[in-house]
Amino acid sequence: MIRKFIITAVAATVIAASAAPAMAGGIYIDQTGFGNSVGGSQSGWNNTFGTKQTGWWNSAVSQQHGGNNVSAIGQQGNNNYGDVYQNGWGNQGGVGQFGNNHNAVVTQDGNGNIAAGVQVGNNCNANVTQHGSGNVTAFVQACP
Fold this sequence. Notes:
Elements: H1 2-19, E1 26-31, E2 37-45, E3 48-53, E4 59-67, E5 70-75, E6 81-89, E7 92-95, E8 103-111, E9 114-115, E10 125-133, E11 136-137
Parallel strand pairs: 1-3, 2-4, 3-5, 4-6, 5-7, 6-8, 7-9, 8-10, 9-11
């Protein structure tokens, strides 16, 4: 009886320890369509990543290192690519993209940076890079 208890306790400890990194940050994924993909990584504390994709062959990537970073990628349509990379604390990055064949890359290295986006029609490309602290960027495109 004691042996079973010890084995159960050890197994529970191993499971809890292996799940700890997954509990470090919030990840929210909502996908409908076909061939959509989401990937990325988080290290640090209180990082949040959310994505909502509809359509076909959309890809979303978020990498967050530091703490209290938030990234959001929403894509509707087909063959869109959104990428948010954040290193530091208190950064917020977002990408919209509604039509087809859009590419958006947001890179933030520092603290307290904000980068937003939206690309509406088709075939839009955006690349935003911010280094330092307290930077704010918004991009809006309506590529036909």
